[in-house]
Design goal:
Blueprint: H1 29-39, H2 58-76, H3 90-102, H4 104-107, E1 115-117, E2 126-137, E3 143-153, E4 159-161, H5 163-174, E5 177-178, H6 180-195, E6 199-208, H7 209-212, E7 223-230, H8 231-234, H9 236-250
Helix pairs in contact: 2-3, 5-6
């Protein structure tokens, strides 16, 4: 399975601190951002972060553009947004929800995370979780609601991060449309890069509304998957210890 890696490229600096050029005024902001991505040969899949290619002021313009197009969707659904007081502002509310909340992880840079040296040379298993996560399926844009557990086996050279920062980084990754398997891999990639531990494990359990709300409408099915790195792949006892502790928290 092909996995996704968050973008690390930096946008061209010539206009990064300035307002968009005047000759771009007639071009939709989404097209301007797409062109920068294409020129940099950077992909922009649903679960990629593109913050480095968005210039100051453009998110507000993008919100206006999305709201206008969402209004067209409501028209095509034959919803009278003129006289129906419940839907008069729905297009803009939906645009704000996508850009500022549920897909926010695509459009903003990673949250600042202070890293600390492992002064005491800690090398015992630590588990963080459950972290409540909210995401969206990229197939139908239906909610994914779940929990994540993170297991870390640091070494003397590992960087340590504050407890709340795990939740912030996970939320940044999860706030994008995606599939669960790729989301967990992105979380593992990000934490491995920042902490450089001897072992890293990420376990996620989630309800998928694309199964519960539509399709088969099965309310009881959950998806559980994991990504193991380092010694968690080679040490069966350590892996069993991790999964036993996670299962206790899951109520298994």
């Amino acid at each position: 399975m092909q996995t996704s890696t968050p973008l690390k490229a930096v946008a061209p600096s010539s206009q990064q601190d300035d307002a968009p050029a005047a000759d771009d005024a007639g071009t939709p902001v989404s097209l301007r951002i797409r062109e920068r991505l294409r020129q940099a040969q950077q992909r922009f899949h649903a679960n990629d972060n593109i913050a480095a290619f968005i210039e100051p002021g453009e998110l507000e313009q993008l919100l206006d553009e999305v709201a206008g197009k969402m209004g067209g969707v409501l028209e095509s659904l034959v919803i009278d947004t003129d006289s129906d007081h419940n839907t008069q502002d729905t297009a803009r509310r939906v645009a704000k929800m996508y850009l500022q909340e549920i897909f926010k992880g695509r459009y903003v840079a990673a949250p600042p995370v202070t890293e600390f040296p492992n002064v005491e040379h800690l090398n015992e298993l630590m588990i963080v979780g459950p972290i409540t996560v909210r995401s969206a399926c990229s197939h139908h844009l239906c909610p994914i609601m779940g929990r994540v557990w993170i297991g870390v086996l640091p070494n003397e050279h590992s960087n340590l991060i504050g407890l709340s920062k795990y939740a912030r980084l996970v939320d940044w990754i999860m706030s994008r449309p995606q599939i669960q398997e790729e989301a967990v891999t992105q979380v593992a990639n990000l934490l491995q890069e920042r902490m450089q531990p001897d072992g890293l494990a990420v376990v996620m359990e989630a309800d998928h509304f694309c199964m519960q709300w539509r399709g088969v409408k099965d309310m009881d099915s959950k998806m559980v998957n994991s990504v193991m790195r380092g010694v968690f792949l080679t040490d069966a006892n350590l892996r069993r210890e991790l999964l036993a502790l996670v299962n206790q928290k899951r109520g298994a």
